[in-house]
Amino acid sequence: MSNNTKLFQDYLQSIVQKEEPAGLYQPISYLLQLGGKRIRPLLTLMAVDIFNGKPEGGLPAALAVELFHNFTLMHDDIMDEAPLRRGQPTVHEKWDLNTGILSGDAMLIQAYQSLEAYPDLLFGRLTRLLSRTAIEVCEGQQYDVDFETQTQVSQEAYLEMIRLKTAVLVGCALKMGAVIGGAAEEDAQAIYDFGVLLGTAFQIQDDYLDAFGDPKIFGKQVGGDILENKKTILYHQAMIQGSVEDQRILTEWFSKKTTASVSEEKIKIVKLLFDSSGATEATKALVVQYTEAAFEKLETIQIDTQSKVHLKVFGQNLMERKF
Question: Domains in the chain: how many in total?
Answer without folding.
Answer: 1
